[in-house]
Amino acid sequence: MRLTRRPVLAALGALAVAAATGPALAEDAAVIDARVNLALEKLFTEVPGTRDLSQKAFGILVMPEVVKGGFILGGSYGEGALRLNDGSGYKNTAEYYSVGAASLGLQAGIQSSSHALFFLTQASLDKFRRADGWEAGADAEVTFPSAGMNVGTDTTTAQKPIVAFVFGQDGLLLGASLEGAKYSRIVR
After folding, report:
1. Backbone angles phi and psi of 126, in degrees to 5
2. Which of 35, 88, 168, 181 is a Cys-bridge partner for 114, taking CB atoms 3.0 to 4.6 Å apart?
3. 18-27, 34-43, 69-78, 137-146: least confident range
4. Which residues contact 90 (CB under 8 A, 6 or more apart)?
């Protein structure tokens, strides 16, 4: 049997759509909360200054595992939780969210990573929570500090309403980004 371009592209497109819309078996709240707790500790340990930045933030959206994959067509999906700065050290979940994206372009591979969005203004947090599907870059300006930067002293970061960190990367995916990722509230 000889494979032609059209069936291969159709199969890859179906894979990207499946990845962007999420797995059939979603995680329950307890599993998401446990993964978020581990991811927060990993973030605070691996990225200098994030613990201090968390004290200034109004909330943190933590996506403990986002899986991205693709070959020309790609997709990603993950589930996480929004934690509010209520004096508890971000221990209580306010809401659960999913993130998904589909992409077309020069990319190949599969990767798992974690990311966290720090909401540094009440207005940015409120806008995120009111949105019916929120996209970084389209709905708000988000900055991604470079590796090795001292988060607490960077004036550019301090002036942004939302700061994002990608950490805990595993695997290899060439040509990928968070661009086009859409966050949606989910019920768990």
Report:
1. -60, -45
2. 168
3. 18-27
4. 40, 54, 60, 83, 84
Tokens of 35: 């993964």
Nearest CA to 90 out of 119, 125, 54 is that of: 54
Per residue in 66-105, pLDDT tens? Answer: 998 888 788 889 999 999 998 878 989 999 999 998 877 7
Give residues with Cβ within 8 angstroms of 106, minimum separation 6.
72, 174, 175
Give me the half-sphere count of Cα atoms (radius 13 Å) on the Cβ side of residue 50: 28
Unique residue bearing structure tokens 């990608």:
166
Neighbour tally for 156: CB within 10 Å: 10
CA within 13 Å, CB half, 123: 5
Structure tokens at 88: 């508890």
Residue by residue, DSSP assigns the chain as ----HHHHHHHHHHHHHHHHH--SSPPPHHHHHHHHHHHHHHHHHHSTTHHHHHHH-SEEEEEEEEEEEEEEEEEEEEEEEEEE-SSSSS-SEEEEEEEEEEEEEEEEEEEEEEEEEEE-SHHHHHHHHH-SSEEBTTTB-EE-PPTT--GGG-HHHHTSSEEEEEEEEEEEEET--STT-EEEEE--
